[in-house]
Amino acid sequence: MRRFILTGTPGAGKTTLLHALAARGHSVIEEAATDVIAEGQAAGVDEPWAEPGFVERVVTVQRERQLGAGTAAVQLFDRSPVCTYTLAEYLGLPVAPALRAELERIATQRVYQPTVFFVRNLGFCEPTPARRISFADSLEFERVHRRSYREFGFALLDVPAAPLAERVALVEAALAEDGA
Questions:
Q1: Greater pLDDT, 108 or 138
Q2: For residue 86, what pLDDT band results from cuts at 50, 70 and 90?
Q3: pTM (2 d.p.)
Q4: CA distance 34 to 19
Q5: What is the structure's pLDDT at 180?
Q6: Residue-level pLDDT at 134
Q7: What confidence category does residue 60 fall into, taking pLDDT thresholds of 50, 70 and 90?
Q8: φ/ψ of residue 12, rounded to 5
Q9: What one-character-per-residue DSSP string does 29-53 give?
């Protein structure tokens, strides 16, 4: 089984790209943090990311999704625990023991392919209820994100700002080249 991560700055179009890949028959696993935020907001918490236990909840959902992703030979994940580590660092939160354990697990078990699709920003960041970040701040988050993946030993394959069809073609070409 080959598990690939798609990541990048908030608002870069990762989810749109993944939905397009799913429409073309690829196995896609949705992002956990967005769903954890939506659950919190539905429960009346305006900023769930500021609540104690947020990082642990994201890590738990990520692990559950990864372990329950099925048996497709190739799987594409919208973010990973490295993203959660980056978010914790960016928000100034401590790296929770559950996150440390999950980072160790994915490293020792080589859960994900060593090359990560890094979806580059589109030149803007559109706010949503779950994404309240300025474009300037998203660029800083992108920088921290790239550094984190490299520190954890991943190689980054840039998916530049481009029309969706070009991004899909780039990812599919890289998957084919990788034998996936």
A1: 108
A2: very high
A3: 0.91
A4: 15
A5: 62
A6: 81
A7: very high
A8: -80, -10
A9: E--HHHHHHHHHHHTT-S-GGGSTT
27 contacts: CB under 8 Å, gap ≥ 6: 69, 70, 72, 74, 75, 76
- DSSP 8-state symbol, 110: T
Structure tokens at 57: 């909840």
Looking up tokens 């329950």 gives 68
Instruction: Tell me the CATH architecture of domain 2-177.
Output: 3-Layer(aba) Sandwich (3.40)
Contact indicator for 121, 158 with CB cutoff of 8 Å: no
- Is residue 48 within 8 A of residue 91, CB to CB? The reply is no
The pLDDT tens digits of the residues spanning 10-21 come to 889 998 999 999
In single-letter form, the type of residue at position 94 comes to P
Straight-line distance from the first to the last Cα atom of the chain, in angstroms, rounded to the nearest whole number: 9
pLDDT attached to residue 82: 96
* C-alpha closest to that of 111 among 7, 28, 1, 27: 1
Sign of the four-CA dihedral 134, 137, 141, 143: positive
- Cα angle, residue 38 at apex, residues 152 and 17 outer, rounded to 5°: 55
Show me where the domains of the chain are located.
2-177
Mean pLDDT of the chain: 91
Phi, then psi, of 28 in degrees rounded to 5 = -125, 140
DSSP symbol at 178: T
Q: What angle do CA 153, 154, 155 make, to 5 degrees?
A: 125
